Write the structure tokens for this entry.
Amino acid sequence: MIKYRIQKSDFLFSVLFLLSSFFFFASCGSSGGGGGGSSYVTISGVVQFEDRVFDSTGFTSAQNKAVRFADIEIINSSDSSIVTSTSTDENGNYSVTIFPSSSNIYVRCLTSTSVGYSKGTKAYNIEVVNGNGSIYSVVSDGFSAALSGTYSKNLTASLDSGAGGPFNILDSLIDGTEFIVAKNGGFTSKKVKAIWYDGNKDGTYYSTATNDLYFLGKSTDSDSYDDIVILHEFGHWVAGNFSKDDSPGGTHTITGYYDIRLAWSEGWATFFGSSVRSYAGYSNPEYYVDTTGGSGNGNLLFSYEIKTPSYSSLATGSDNELSVSSVLWNIFLSAGFNGIWDVVKNYLPSTAEISLEDFWDGWFARGHNSTLNPSSIFSARSIEYASDSYESDNNSSQAEAVNFGESLHHTYYPLGDEDWISFSATNGTTYTIETLSLTNGADTHLFLYNTDGATLITSNVNDYPYTDDRSLTDKSSLMTWTATATGTYYVRSKAYSDSGAISAYGSYNIRVQ
Amino acid sequence: MTIKKFKLYSIVLFVFMFLFFSPFIISLAASKPIPPIDVVIEFDKHPAIPGIAIVNLKLIPLIKHSNIDVHIELPEKLRLINGVGKWSGILEVDKTETFQYKIYIPDNKTYGLKAIIILKMITGEAVRREEVLEINPVVKKKELKKNHTQEEKGRGVIEFKGE
């Protein structure tokens, strides 16, 4: 333990300091209260920004909305020094008291909450900046506050001025923060920083390298008013800061089939955005809407729905992000957000190669199946986390006999499941043994056994380093083999589980011909 | 140069390249979803007014086996000199197809050239995209009061005039 020895001189200075402080605050108190406020200037007002309302067809109208919890500064015009600062409240109101001064001053409201507004358990630490890291603001005209009294200074950040967009980003991020605070019981001290500027062509994304959010500002696609796009990226931020994200990244469209880690990451982010908008009371939160950002109504880039998902026949499997969003949204509608959040926050970080498979496992591991069995929700999107109709077929003695050219549908489920088939082979005949129509992230691995069901003849080694795959881009398996004796042979199929394996489950067809 | 120096320089270069480029590689880790067809409409050549503008419409289908309809809508005073106003067909996935149009622009008034693209999937579902190219757009002046750079402890502030 470190011990400090208090010097006599230190003690004297401390007493003097305390006395000075007392006289300072006492003098302030007497002139403000006893003097009837005659020596003070109160500056107050409401700050708003021009918000754009949208639905699945694009923008529908514009209306003013309060700028919540934002930093307010009173600036001395002559030297740009900050006279005092405060924050707006949840209705955009602010009020500050200063000493009268003949200096010209003005009010400035920033796209930041870095002053640290706090209310109960709420604490905001959000900043919206341009490409150089400068904070946006909206300011009043300059005025002199030489005479005591009350000055009303209302501010509006309009769309046309260029200030509305950054304030809308701030507003959406506050919605997102409010949601996490409510569901998580608190936030994190980490700053949420969003970068947007007119002309930004770099892309809209969350960077794991900087932990920042970036938004497009192109003339053909600006995201400053795309609330659900902003919240989608904030969903990635939440995953990165409260959970774990193993997405390999890359471009992705909602009708495409990708690495199950990417599908989870993107599906979660869209679901999260919709959850925030549901909590905040916006209408039709199940819609993802991306606009061009152009002025006037419409200007839709594209939109889709996640409840009964758009492009429903394509929104299938754990490798499609829209399917993942839909599964989460329907669980949310049936069981609320808390169970989902519990799995995301408390289960997923302990797993590797996070995907919808891990969410499924976590739902059961954390006991949420007592609230909701999600099987029907998953199967509605053709996600087969269930045993196939040929079980049990876990060894050669249980193998399902297949006819030449017949295709059998299988799933790898539960964890570690193996599927065995048998077929009759004729001496000298060449056979193709293959897996087809892989879905839900399946990565098949085949092994051919002799008539005793125990002696390995070969396994599919096609493409280094993915030794089980048909090609570098196709995780299905293919073996070509010529029988050296007539008899019944056995094929063992299992999920690839060596180095680089991502999925544990998956669906596929198997065929011998 | 000795082998030892070469190795050292290689390591330094690798570290530099990694530090410089890794944020760009990683930063795209979580981008926003894109629609099933990417559409860009832009001027290839701005006209001397009155004159003829060359406009390129670029389409990139992102899903296979989709039939695509393209329809160009022109305001009354503009004339399509060259190019197909309506087109239907199948485009190759992930490949950019460019449609070019020559359009006569009579004056300096603002017009909107609208391209309507409908992508019909094999499943029967469709995606509709509309892109508008503004011709002679009115540039709105933004009321920037002043741009403080690096003020107050290194913090820059951009000030817009409130209304």
Observations:
- Residues 1-6, 15-37 of chain A have pLDDT under 50 and may be disordered.
